[in-house]
Protein backbone atom coordinates (compact mmCIF):
# COMPACT_ATOMS: atom_id res chain seq x y z
CA UNK A 1 0.00 0.00 0.00
CA UNK A 2 1.48 3.34 -1.09
CA UNK A 3 -0.06 6.38 0.54
CA UNK A 4 0.71 9.93 -0.62
CA UNK A 5 0.12 12.54 2.09
CA UNK A 6 -0.31 16.30 1.69
CA UNK A 7 -2.46 19.19 2.89
CA UNK A 8 -2.15 21.14 6.11
CA UNK A 9 -0.19 19.82 9.11
CA UNK A 10 1.48 17.31 6.81
CA UNK A 11 4.13 16.30 9.37
CA UNK A 12 1.43 15.32 11.83
CA UNK A 13 -0.41 13.43 9.07
CA UNK A 14 2.74 11.64 7.96
CA UNK A 15 3.52 10.54 11.52
CA UNK A 16 -0.07 9.37 12.07
CA UNK A 17 -0.04 7.30 8.87
CA UNK A 18 3.35 5.74 9.66
CA UNK A 19 2.10 4.79 13.11
CA UNK A 20 -1.19 3.34 11.84
CA UNK A 21 0.35 1.56 8.84
CA UNK A 22 3.95 0.58 9.62
CA UNK A 23 4.19 -1.57 6.47
CA UNK A 24 2.84 1.04 4.06
CA UNK A 25 5.04 3.20 1.88
CA UNK A 26 4.32 6.82 2.87
CA UNK A 27 5.07 9.52 0.30
CA UNK A 28 5.07 13.09 1.64
CA UNK A 29 4.02 15.40 -1.18
CA UNK A 30 1.49 18.17 -1.91
CA UNK A 31 -1.90 18.17 -3.57
CA UNK A 32 -0.79 18.94 -7.13
CA UNK A 33 2.05 16.42 -7.14
CA UNK A 34 -0.10 13.95 -5.24
CA UNK A 35 -2.64 14.09 -8.05
CA UNK A 36 -0.01 13.28 -10.65
CA UNK A 37 1.41 10.43 -8.50
CA UNK A 38 -2.06 8.86 -8.42
CA UNK A 39 -2.51 9.33 -12.17
CA UNK A 40 0.89 7.82 -12.95
CA UNK A 41 0.15 4.88 -10.67
CA UNK A 42 3.04 5.78 -8.34
CA UNK A 43 0.72 5.99 -5.35
CA UNK A 44 -2.46 4.09 -4.41
CA UNK A 45 -4.11 6.58 -2.08
CA UNK A 46 -3.89 10.22 -1.07
CA UNK A 47 -4.62 11.54 2.45
CA UNK A 48 -4.96 15.27 3.08
CA UNK A 49 -6.14 17.43 5.96
CA UNK A 50 -7.38 20.99 6.30
CA UNK A 51 -9.78 22.89 8.54
CA UNK A 52 -12.92 21.79 6.71
CA UNK A 53 -11.73 18.42 5.42
CA UNK A 54 -12.64 19.43 1.89
CA UNK A 55 -10.74 22.64 1.13
CA UNK A 56 -6.96 22.61 1.10
CA UNK A 57 -7.19 18.88 1.83
CA UNK A 58 -8.66 17.60 -1.42
CA UNK A 59 -10.17 20.44 -3.45
CA UNK A 60 -7.39 20.43 -6.03
CA UNK A 61 -7.51 16.62 -6.30
CA UNK A 62 -11.24 16.79 -7.00
CA UNK A 63 -10.34 18.99 -9.97
CA UNK A 64 -7.42 16.87 -11.16
CA UNK A 65 -8.36 13.28 -10.28
CA UNK A 66 -12.15 13.61 -10.48
CA UNK A 67 -14.89 14.03 -7.95
CA UNK A 68 -15.98 10.37 -8.15
CA UNK A 69 -12.68 9.22 -6.61
CA UNK A 70 -12.59 11.76 -3.77
CA UNK A 71 -14.36 12.01 -0.43
CA UNK A 72 -14.23 13.83 2.87
CA UNK A 73 -14.07 11.16 5.56
CA UNK A 74 -14.36 13.56 8.47
CA UNK A 75 -16.02 16.96 8.18
CA UNK A 76 -15.57 19.96 10.44
CA UNK A 77 -17.45 19.58 13.72
CA UNK A 78 -17.99 15.82 13.44
CA UNK A 79 -16.19 12.67 14.56
CA UNK A 80 -14.95 9.92 12.22
CA UNK A 81 -17.45 7.13 11.63
CA UNK A 82 -16.08 3.66 10.92
CA UNK A 83 -19.08 2.48 8.88
CA UNK A 84 -19.03 5.60 6.72
CA UNK A 85 -15.30 5.28 6.11
CA UNK A 86 -15.62 1.60 5.11
CA UNK A 87 -18.43 2.51 2.71
CA UNK A 88 -16.25 5.15 1.05
CA UNK A 89 -13.44 2.62 0.63
CA UNK A 90 -15.83 0.01 -0.81
CA UNK A 91 -17.07 2.60 -3.32
CA UNK A 92 -13.51 2.76 -4.64
CA UNK A 93 -12.56 6.22 -3.33
CA UNK A 94 -8.80 6.81 -3.35
CA UNK A 95 -8.52 10.44 -2.19
CA UNK A 96 -9.43 11.07 1.43
CA UNK A 97 -9.86 14.48 3.05
CA UNK A 98 -10.28 15.04 6.78
CA UNK A 99 -10.07 17.87 9.32
CA UNK A 100 -6.80 18.76 11.01
CA UNK A 101 -8.56 18.56 14.38
CA UNK A 102 -9.70 14.98 13.78
CA UNK A 103 -6.78 13.44 11.91
CA UNK A 104 -5.35 11.54 14.90
CA UNK A 105 -8.62 9.63 15.23
CA UNK A 106 -9.47 9.37 11.53
CA UNK A 107 -6.19 7.98 10.15
CA UNK A 108 -6.20 4.64 12.07
CA UNK A 109 -9.83 3.95 11.06
CA UNK A 110 -9.08 4.82 7.46
CA UNK A 111 -5.93 2.68 7.29
CA UNK A 112 -7.84 -0.19 8.86
CA UNK A 113 -10.63 0.12 6.27
CA UNK A 114 -8.11 0.27 3.42
CA UNK A 115 -6.33 -2.85 4.70
CA UNK A 116 -9.66 -4.71 4.81
CA UNK A 117 -11.42 -3.47 1.70
CA UNK A 118 -8.94 -1.37 -0.30
CA UNK A 119 -8.19 -1.97 -3.98
CA UNK A 120 -4.41 -2.00 -3.53
CA UNK A 121 -4.07 -5.23 -1.58
CA UNK B 1 -20.87 47.93 15.71
CA UNK B 2 -22.86 51.03 14.90
CA UNK B 3 -26.30 49.88 13.70
CA UNK B 4 -26.97 52.79 11.36
CA UNK B 5 -29.19 52.89 8.29
CA UNK B 6 -26.07 53.02 6.13
CA UNK B 7 -24.52 49.94 7.78
CA UNK B 8 -27.76 47.95 7.55
CA UNK B 9 -27.99 48.81 3.87
CA UNK B 10 -24.31 48.05 3.32
CA UNK B 11 -24.33 44.63 5.01
CA UNK B 12 -27.65 43.76 3.36
CA UNK B 13 -26.41 44.61 -0.13
CA UNK B 14 -23.09 42.83 0.40
CA UNK B 15 -24.74 39.61 1.56
CA UNK B 16 -27.35 39.79 -1.21
CA UNK B 17 -24.51 40.08 -3.68
CA UNK B 18 -22.42 37.22 -2.23
CA UNK B 19 -25.49 34.94 -2.06
CA UNK B 20 -26.16 35.79 -5.69
CA UNK B 21 -22.53 35.01 -6.64
CA UNK B 22 -22.85 31.63 -4.92
CA UNK B 23 -26.20 30.96 -6.62
CA UNK B 24 -24.74 31.70 -10.06
CA UNK B 25 -21.59 29.71 -9.31
CA UNK B 26 -19.46 32.81 -9.91
CA UNK B 27 -17.71 32.83 -6.53
CA UNK B 28 -17.92 31.07 -3.16
CA UNK B 29 -16.05 31.80 0.04
CA UNK B 30 -15.30 28.25 1.23
CA UNK B 31 -12.31 26.87 -0.68
CA UNK B 32 -13.71 23.39 -0.19
CA UNK B 33 -16.98 24.26 -1.94
CA UNK B 34 -15.28 25.52 -5.08
CA UNK B 35 -14.60 22.10 -6.72
CA UNK B 36 -18.24 21.08 -6.21
CA UNK B 37 -19.59 24.03 -8.19
CA UNK B 38 -18.68 22.76 -11.68
CA UNK B 39 -19.93 19.29 -10.71
CA UNK B 40 -23.30 20.91 -10.05
CA UNK B 41 -23.30 23.45 -12.90
CA UNK B 42 -22.28 20.83 -15.46
CA UNK B 43 -24.99 18.45 -14.30
CA UNK B 44 -22.96 15.69 -12.63
CA UNK B 45 -24.47 16.45 -9.24
CA UNK B 46 -28.14 17.28 -8.52
CA UNK B 47 -28.89 20.51 -6.68
CA UNK B 48 -30.19 18.74 -3.60
CA UNK B 49 -26.98 16.73 -3.16
CA UNK B 50 -24.89 19.81 -3.93
CA UNK B 51 -26.74 21.93 -1.39
CA UNK B 52 -26.35 19.30 1.32
CA UNK B 53 -22.61 18.97 0.58
CA UNK B 54 -22.17 22.76 0.82
CA UNK B 55 -24.18 22.85 4.04
CA UNK B 56 -22.08 20.09 5.58
CA UNK B 57 -18.85 21.81 4.70
CA UNK B 58 -19.84 25.24 5.98
CA UNK B 59 -22.06 24.77 9.03
CA UNK B 60 -19.31 23.76 11.47
CA UNK B 61 -17.45 26.99 10.83
CA UNK B 62 -20.53 29.19 11.13
CA UNK B 63 -21.51 27.62 14.43
CA UNK B 64 -18.03 27.80 15.96
CA UNK B 65 -15.61 30.42 14.59
CA UNK B 66 -18.38 32.44 12.94
CA UNK B 67 -20.73 33.13 15.84
CA UNK B 68 -18.31 32.85 18.77
CA UNK B 69 -15.78 35.22 17.26
CA UNK B 70 -18.43 37.69 16.15
CA UNK B 71 -19.76 37.81 19.72
CA UNK B 72 -16.29 38.06 21.21
CA UNK B 73 -15.13 40.86 18.89
CA UNK B 74 -18.44 42.62 18.15
CA UNK B 75 -17.42 42.51 14.50
CA UNK B 76 -18.92 40.51 11.64
CA UNK B 77 -16.62 38.00 9.96
CA UNK B 78 -16.53 36.08 6.68
CA UNK B 79 -17.41 32.72 8.29
CA UNK B 80 -20.59 34.15 9.75
CA UNK B 81 -21.65 36.04 6.61
CA UNK B 82 -20.11 34.40 3.56
CA UNK B 83 -20.26 30.73 4.51
CA UNK B 84 -23.94 31.32 5.17
CA UNK B 85 -24.37 32.99 1.79
CA UNK B 86 -22.52 30.04 0.17
CA UNK B 87 -25.23 27.81 1.65
CA UNK B 88 -28.08 30.19 0.80
CA UNK B 89 -26.91 30.41 -2.81
CA UNK B 90 -26.66 26.63 -3.04
CA UNK B 91 -30.15 26.00 -1.63
CA UNK B 92 -32.19 28.73 -3.35
CA UNK B 93 -33.54 27.71 -6.76
CA UNK B 94 -34.02 31.31 -7.95
CA UNK B 95 -31.57 34.22 -8.17
CA UNK B 96 -33.88 36.79 -6.59
CA UNK B 97 -34.64 34.45 -3.70
CA UNK B 98 -30.93 33.89 -3.01
CA UNK B 99 -30.32 37.64 -2.98
CA UNK B 100 -33.30 38.32 -0.71
CA UNK B 101 -32.42 35.60 1.82
CA UNK B 102 -28.78 36.69 1.72
CA UNK B 103 -29.71 40.28 2.53
CA UNK B 104 -31.96 39.15 5.38
CA UNK B 105 -29.19 36.99 6.86
CA UNK B 106 -26.69 39.86 6.74
CA UNK B 107 -29.07 42.30 8.43
CA UNK B 108 -30.04 39.71 11.04
CA UNK B 109 -26.35 39.15 11.89
CA UNK B 110 -25.60 42.88 12.13
CA UNK B 111 -28.59 43.64 14.34
CA UNK B 112 -28.38 40.38 16.30
CA UNK B 113 -24.66 40.41 17.09
CA UNK B 114 -24.68 44.16 17.74
CA UNK B 115 -27.74 43.79 19.98
CA UNK B 116 -26.41 40.86 22.00
CA UNK B 117 -23.12 42.66 22.44
CA UNK B 118 -24.86 45.80 23.68
CA UNK B 119 -26.78 43.66 26.17
CA UNK B 120 -23.55 42.01 27.36
CA UNK B 121 -22.08 45.36 28.42
CA UNK B 122 -24.82 45.70 31.05
CA UNK B 123 -23.88 42.49 32.85
CA UNK B 124 -22.68 42.88 36.46
CA UNK B 125 -19.54 40.81 35.82
CA UNK B 126 -17.89 42.53 32.89
CA UNK B 127 -17.77 39.95 30.08
CA UNK B 128 -17.34 42.36 27.17
CA UNK B 129 -14.37 44.09 28.81
CA UNK B 130 -12.71 40.80 29.71
CA UNK B 131 -13.03 39.60 26.12
CA UNK B 132 -10.63 42.41 25.20
CA UNK B 133 -7.93 40.05 26.55
CA UNK B 134 -8.50 37.61 23.70
CA UNK B 135 -6.29 39.42 21.25
CA UNK B 136 -3.42 40.28 23.61
CA UNK B 137 -0.94 37.76 22.22
CA UNK B 138 -2.28 37.22 18.69
CA UNK B 139 0.26 39.50 17.06
CA UNK B 140 3.10 38.05 19.13
CA UNK B 141 2.04 34.47 18.44
CA UNK B 142 1.54 35.20 14.77
CA UNK B 143 5.03 36.69 14.55
CA UNK B 144 6.40 33.24 15.39
CA UNK B 145 4.71 31.45 12.48
CA UNK B 146 7.92 31.43 10.39
CA UNK B 147 9.63 29.40 13.12
CA UNK B 148 6.94 26.70 12.96
CA UNK B 149 6.83 26.74 9.16
CA UNK B 150 10.63 26.41 9.03
CA UNK B 151 10.59 23.40 11.38
CA UNK B 152 7.89 21.76 9.21
CA UNK B 153 9.73 22.33 5.96
CA UNK B 154 13.44 22.31 6.81
CA UNK B 155 13.73 20.53 10.16
CA UNK B 156 14.14 21.47 13.81
CA UNK B 157 17.73 22.76 13.65
CA UNK B 158 16.75 25.56 11.28
CA UNK B 159 13.69 26.25 13.42
CA UNK B 160 15.66 26.64 16.64
CA UNK B 161 18.19 28.88 14.91
CA UNK B 162 15.36 31.08 13.63
CA UNK B 163 13.71 31.20 17.06
CA UNK B 164 16.93 32.26 18.77
CA UNK B 165 17.86 34.90 16.19
CA UNK B 166 14.27 36.17 16.18
CA UNK B 167 14.16 36.55 19.95
CA UNK B 168 17.53 38.32 20.00
CA UNK B 169 16.17 40.77 17.43
CA UNK B 170 12.96 41.28 19.36
CA UNK B 171 15.01 42.36 22.39
CA UNK B 172 17.63 44.44 20.59
CA UNK B 173 15.65 45.68 17.56
CA UNK B 174 13.28 48.08 19.33
CA UNK B 175 16.28 49.80 20.99
CA UNK B 176 17.20 51.21 17.59
CA UNK B 177 15.56 54.64 17.29
CA UNK B 178 15.48 56.54 14.04
CA UNK B 179 14.17 59.74 12.47
CA UNK B 180 13.35 63.08 14.09
CA UNK B 181 10.66 61.54 16.33
CA UNK B 182 13.07 58.73 17.36
CA UNK B 183 10.57 56.14 16.21
CA UNK B 184 11.24 52.43 16.60
CA UNK B 185 9.95 49.21 15.07
CA UNK B 186 7.94 47.05 17.48
CA UNK B 187 9.36 43.83 18.91
CA UNK B 188 6.69 41.73 17.15
CA UNK B 189 7.46 43.36 13.82
CA UNK B 190 11.16 42.54 14.27
CA UNK B 191 10.38 38.95 15.12
CA UNK B 192 8.12 38.58 12.09
CA UNK B 193 10.59 40.30 9.78
CA UNK B 194 13.52 38.11 10.84
CA UNK B 195 11.43 34.95 10.57
CA UNK B 196 10.04 35.71 7.13
CA UNK B 197 13.47 36.69 5.79
CA UNK B 198 14.98 33.42 7.06
CA UNK B 199 12.09 31.41 5.63
CA UNK B 200 12.70 32.97 2.22
CA UNK B 201 16.47 32.39 2.46
CA UNK B 202 16.03 28.70 3.33
CA UNK B 203 13.41 28.22 0.60
CA UNK B 204 15.51 29.82 -2.14
CA UNK B 205 18.52 27.80 -0.98
CA UNK B 206 16.69 24.43 -1.13
CA UNK B 207 15.02 25.35 -4.41
CA UNK B 208 18.43 25.97 -5.98
CA UNK B 209 19.62 22.57 -4.74
CA UNK B 210 16.71 20.61 -6.29
CA UNK B 211 16.31 22.62 -9.45
CA UNK B 212 15.84 19.60 -11.73
CA UNK B 213 12.77 18.46 -9.77
CA UNK B 214 10.76 21.47 -10.92
CA UNK B 215 10.23 20.28 -14.48
CA UNK B 216 6.95 18.39 -14.06
CA UNK B 217 3.34 19.49 -13.70
CA UNK B 218 2.45 21.92 -16.42
CA UNK B 219 -1.28 21.88 -16.07
CA UNK B 220 -1.86 25.63 -16.36
CA UNK B 221 -2.97 25.61 -20.00
CA UNK B 222 -5.78 23.06 -19.74
CA UNK B 223 -7.65 25.48 -17.56
CA UNK B 224 -7.64 28.57 -19.78
CA UNK B 225 -11.39 28.11 -20.35
CA UNK B 226 -11.96 28.23 -16.58
CA UNK B 227 -9.85 31.38 -16.20
CA UNK B 228 -11.80 32.97 -19.04
CA UNK B 229 -15.05 32.34 -17.15
CA UNK B 230 -13.72 34.14 -14.05
CA UNK B 231 -12.56 37.07 -16.22
CA UNK B 232 -15.99 37.34 -17.79
CA UNK B 233 -17.52 37.65 -14.31
CA UNK B 234 -15.10 40.30 -13.10
CA UNK B 235 -17.67 43.16 -12.82
CA UNK B 236 -19.67 41.11 -10.28
CA UNK B 237 -16.53 40.20 -8.37
CA UNK B 238 -15.39 43.83 -8.29
CA UNK B 239 -18.77 44.92 -6.91
CA UNK B 240 -18.50 42.38 -4.09
CA UNK B 241 -14.88 43.39 -3.46
CA UNK B 242 -15.86 47.05 -3.17
CA UNK B 243 -18.70 46.27 -0.73
CA UNK B 244 -16.52 44.06 1.49
CA UNK B 245 -13.73 46.66 1.60
CA UNK B 246 -16.28 49.29 2.66
CA UNK B 247 -17.58 46.97 5.43
CA UNK B 248 -13.99 46.69 6.72
CA UNK B 249 -13.62 50.46 6.51
CA UNK B 250 -16.90 51.10 8.38
CA UNK B 251 -15.61 49.00 11.32
CA UNK B 252 -18.37 46.40 11.10
CA UNK B 253 -16.32 43.55 9.63
CA UNK B 254 -12.96 41.84 10.19
CA UNK B 255 -11.41 39.37 7.78
CA UNK B 256 -9.84 36.63 9.91
CA UNK B 257 -8.65 35.47 13.31
CA UNK B 258 -5.22 37.02 12.75
CA UNK B 259 -6.74 40.50 12.65
CA UNK B 260 -10.20 40.56 14.26
CA UNK B 261 -9.18 40.63 17.93
CA UNK B 262 -6.76 43.51 17.49
CA UNK B 263 -9.26 45.40 15.34
CA UNK B 264 -11.88 44.92 18.04
CA UNK B 265 -9.46 46.36 20.62
CA UNK B 266 -8.68 49.25 18.30
CA UNK B 267 -12.32 50.09 17.58
CA UNK B 268 -13.79 49.64 21.06
CA UNK B 269 -10.91 49.82 23.54
CA UNK B 270 -7.52 51.51 23.30
CA UNK B 271 -7.77 55.19 22.38
CA UNK B 272 -4.25 56.29 21.49
CA UNK B 273 -2.98 52.87 20.41
CA UNK B 274 -5.78 52.37 17.90
CA UNK B 275 -3.77 53.29 14.83
CA UNK B 276 -0.86 50.96 15.62
CA UNK B 277 -3.26 48.11 16.46
CA UNK B 278 -4.98 48.56 13.09
CA UNK B 279 -1.64 48.62 11.30
CA UNK B 280 -0.52 45.45 13.11
CA UNK B 281 -3.76 43.73 12.14
CA UNK B 282 -3.30 44.85 8.54
CA UNK B 283 0.23 43.42 8.41
CA UNK B 284 -1.00 40.08 9.81
CA UNK B 285 -3.82 40.00 7.30
CA UNK B 286 -1.42 40.75 4.46
CA UNK B 287 0.87 37.82 5.33
CA UNK B 288 -2.09 35.50 5.82
CA UNK B 289 -3.40 36.59 2.43
CA UNK B 290 -0.08 35.79 0.75
CA UNK B 291 -0.10 32.28 2.22
CA UNK B 292 -3.58 31.70 0.81
CA UNK B 293 -2.73 32.74 -2.78
CA UNK B 294 -1.72 29.27 -4.00
CA UNK B 295 -4.84 27.54 -2.64
CA UNK B 296 -7.30 30.16 -3.84
CA UNK B 297 -5.56 30.60 -7.20
CA UNK B 298 -5.32 26.89 -7.94
CA UNK B 299 -8.88 26.07 -6.86
CA UNK B 300 -10.12 29.05 -8.88
CA UNK B 301 -8.18 28.06 -12.01
CA UNK B 302 -9.24 24.42 -11.87
CA UNK B 303 -12.93 25.24 -11.28
CA UNK B 304 -13.67 28.64 -12.87
CA UNK B 305 -15.13 29.78 -9.55
CA UNK B 306 -13.50 32.64 -7.64
CA UNK B 307 -13.49 33.60 -3.95
CA UNK B 308 -16.03 36.23 -2.88
CA UNK B 309 -13.22 38.16 -1.19
CA UNK B 310 -10.59 37.22 -3.78
CA UNK B 311 -7.15 36.71 -2.25
CA UNK B 312 -8.44 38.66 0.82
CA UNK B 313 -6.18 41.67 0.19
CA UNK B 314 -9.33 43.79 -0.01
CA UNK B 315 -9.58 43.45 3.80
CA UNK B 316 -6.21 45.15 4.21
CA UNK B 317 -7.30 47.96 1.86
CA UNK B 318 -10.51 48.34 3.87
CA UNK B 319 -8.75 48.61 7.26
CA UNK B 320 -6.23 51.17 6.05
CA UNK B 321 -8.31 53.37 3.71
CA UNK B 322 -8.99 56.90 4.99
CA UNK B 323 -12.67 56.78 3.95
CA UNK B 324 -15.30 54.42 2.47
CA UNK B 325 -15.01 55.88 -1.04
CA UNK B 326 -11.29 55.14 -1.24
CA UNK B 327 -11.97 51.69 0.26
CA UNK B 328 -14.59 50.92 -2.40
CA UNK B 329 -12.32 52.02 -5.25
CA UNK B 330 -9.34 50.08 -3.90
CA UNK B 331 -11.49 47.00 -3.25
CA UNK B 332 -12.74 46.92 -6.82
CA UNK B 333 -9.30 47.67 -8.28
CA UNK B 334 -7.58 44.95 -6.22
CA UNK B 335 -10.06 42.30 -7.35
CA UNK B 336 -9.62 43.40 -10.98
CA UNK B 337 -5.83 43.09 -10.78
CA UNK B 338 -6.04 39.69 -9.02
CA UNK B 339 -8.33 38.25 -11.68
CA UNK B 340 -6.16 39.56 -14.52
CA UNK B 341 -3.07 37.92 -12.98
CA UNK B 342 -4.83 34.64 -12.19
CA UNK B 343 -3.63 32.78 -15.28
CA UNK B 344 -0.04 33.89 -14.73
CA UNK B 345 -0.10 32.89 -11.05
CA UNK B 346 -1.39 29.46 -12.02
CA UNK B 347 1.40 28.93 -14.51
CA UNK B 348 4.01 30.09 -12.00
CA UNK B 349 2.72 27.63 -9.40
CA UNK B 350 2.84 24.81 -11.94
CA UNK B 351 6.54 25.49 -12.46
CA UNK B 352 7.45 25.76 -8.79
CA UNK B 353 5.72 23.05 -6.76
CA UNK B 354 7.91 24.02 -3.78
CA UNK B 355 5.89 27.22 -3.52
CA UNK B 356 2.75 25.19 -2.83
CA UNK B 357 4.59 23.23 -0.15
CA UNK B 358 5.74 26.44 1.46
CA UNK B 359 2.24 27.93 1.39
CA UNK B 360 0.68 24.84 2.99
CA UNK B 361 3.34 24.85 5.70
CA UNK B 362 2.82 28.55 6.34
CA UNK B 363 -0.95 28.06 6.61
CA UNK B 364 -0.48 25.17 9.04
CA UNK B 365 1.98 27.26 11.05
CA UNK B 366 -0.35 30.28 11.19
CA UNK B 367 -3.10 27.97 12.42
CA UNK B 368 -0.88 26.51 15.15
CA UNK B 369 0.48 29.84 16.42
CA UNK B 370 -2.80 31.76 16.35
CA UNK B 371 -4.68 28.89 18.03
CA UNK B 372 -2.18 28.88 20.88
CA UNK B 373 -2.19 32.66 21.29
CA UNK B 374 -5.98 32.75 21.23
CA UNK B 375 -6.24 29.95 23.79
CA UNK B 376 -3.88 31.85 26.07
CA UNK B 377 -5.75 35.14 25.55
CA UNK B 378 -9.03 33.39 26.29
CA UNK B 379 -7.64 31.99 29.54
CA UNK B 380 -6.50 35.50 30.42
CA UNK B 381 -10.05 36.75 29.88
CA UNK B 382 -11.33 33.94 32.12
CA UNK B 383 -8.85 34.83 34.86
CA UNK B 384 -9.75 38.54 34.63
CA UNK B 385 -13.42 37.67 35.19
CA UNK B 386 -12.45 35.25 37.98
CA UNK B 387 -10.32 37.90 39.67
CA UNK B 388 -13.23 40.37 39.59
CA UNK B 389 -15.11 37.97 41.88
CA UNK B 390 -11.88 37.11 43.80
CA UNK B 391 -12.17 33.49 42.69
CA UNK B 392 -10.03 32.91 39.61
CA UNK B 393 -9.90 29.17 40.30
CA UNK B 394 -13.68 28.90 39.89
CA UNK B 395 -13.49 30.69 36.54
CA UNK B 396 -10.63 28.46 35.47
CA UNK B 397 -12.54 25.34 36.52
CA UNK B 398 -15.55 26.29 34.37
CA UNK B 399 -13.35 27.10 31.38
CA UNK B 400 -11.31 23.91 31.75
CA UNK B 401 -14.46 21.81 32.05
CA UNK B 402 -15.81 23.24 28.77
CA UNK B 403 -12.44 22.69 27.09
CA UNK B 404 -12.00 19.10 28.31
CA UNK B 405 -15.56 18.10 27.39
CA UNK B 406 -14.98 19.41 23.87
CA UNK B 407 -11.68 17.51 23.59
CA UNK B 408 -13.13 14.27 24.91
CA UNK B 409 -16.18 14.36 22.64
CA UNK B 410 -14.03 14.63 19.53
CA UNK B 411 -13.71 18.44 19.20
CA UNK B 412 -17.21 19.33 18.04
CA UNK B 413 -16.04 22.93 18.36
CA UNK B 414 -12.83 23.48 16.44
CA UNK B 415 -9.66 24.41 18.25
CA UNK B 416 -9.61 27.89 16.71
CA UNK B 417 -12.98 28.65 18.33
CA UNK B 418 -12.93 26.86 21.67
CA UNK B 419 -11.13 29.72 23.49
CA UNK B 420 -13.74 32.41 22.76
CA UNK B 421 -16.49 29.83 23.41
CA UNK B 422 -15.28 28.97 26.91
CA UNK B 423 -14.57 32.63 27.69
CA UNK B 424 -18.16 33.57 26.79
CA UNK B 425 -19.41 30.49 28.66
CA UNK B 426 -17.54 31.48 31.83
CA UNK B 427 -18.90 35.03 31.57
CA UNK B 428 -22.47 33.82 31.24
CA UNK B 429 -22.20 31.24 34.04
CA UNK B 430 -20.49 33.62 36.47
CA UNK B 431 -23.22 36.20 35.84
CA UNK B 432 -25.89 33.60 36.55
CA UNK B 433 -24.10 32.68 39.79
CA UNK B 434 -23.94 36.39 40.65
CA UNK B 435 -27.66 36.82 40.10
CA UNK B 436 -28.28 33.78 42.32
CA UNK B 437 -26.14 35.44 44.99
CA UNK B 438 -23.53 32.67 44.97
CA UNK B 439 -20.59 34.89 44.02
CA UNK B 440 -19.90 38.55 44.77
CA UNK B 441 -17.82 41.23 43.07
CA UNK B 442 -14.51 42.20 44.69
CA UNK B 443 -14.91 45.27 46.82
Overview of this protein structure:
The complex is a heterodimer of chains A (121) and B (443). Chain A has 121 residues and is α/β, with parallel strands linked by helices. Helix content of chain A is 42%, strand content 21%. In chain A, helix 1 packs across helix 5 (103-117), helix 2 (31-39) runs parallel beside helix 3 and helix 4 packs across helix 5 (103-117). Chain A is globular. Chain B is mainly α and 443 residues long. In chain B, helix 8 (145-154) packs antiparallel against helix 9 and helix 12 (234-249) crosses helix 16 (324-351). The radius of gyration of chain B is 22 Å and the shape is globular. Chain A binds chain B through residues 6-11, 30-33, 36, 50-60, 62-64, 67, 72, 75-79, 97, 99-102, 105, and chain B through 30-36, 39, 44-45, 56-61, 63-64, 152, 216-217, 219, 295, 298-299, 302-303, 349-350, 353, 356-357, 360-361, 363-364, 367-368, 409-416.
List keywords for this structure.
heterodimer, A: 121 residues, alpha/beta, Ribose 5-phosphate Isomerase B, Chain: A, five-stranded parallel sheet, 5 helices, 5 strands, B: 443 residues, mainly alpha, 19 helices, 73% helix, 0% strand
Amino acid sequence: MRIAVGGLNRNEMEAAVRKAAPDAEVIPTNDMQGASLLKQGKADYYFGACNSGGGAAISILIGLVGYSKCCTVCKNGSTPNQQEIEDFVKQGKIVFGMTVDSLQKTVPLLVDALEKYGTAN
Amino acid sequence: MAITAFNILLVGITCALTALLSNMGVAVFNDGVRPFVPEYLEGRMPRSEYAVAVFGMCIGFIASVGIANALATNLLNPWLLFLATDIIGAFCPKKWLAAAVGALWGILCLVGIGGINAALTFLPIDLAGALGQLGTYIVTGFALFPVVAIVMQFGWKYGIATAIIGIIFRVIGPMWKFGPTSASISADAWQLLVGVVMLVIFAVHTDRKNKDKNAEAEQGNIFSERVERIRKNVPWLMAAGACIAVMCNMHVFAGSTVSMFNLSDAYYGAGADAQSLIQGAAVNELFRGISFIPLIAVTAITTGVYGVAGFTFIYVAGYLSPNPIVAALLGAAIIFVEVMFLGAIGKGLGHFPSLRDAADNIRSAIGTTVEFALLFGSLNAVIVMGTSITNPALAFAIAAAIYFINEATGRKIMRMAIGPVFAIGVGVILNILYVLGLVALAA
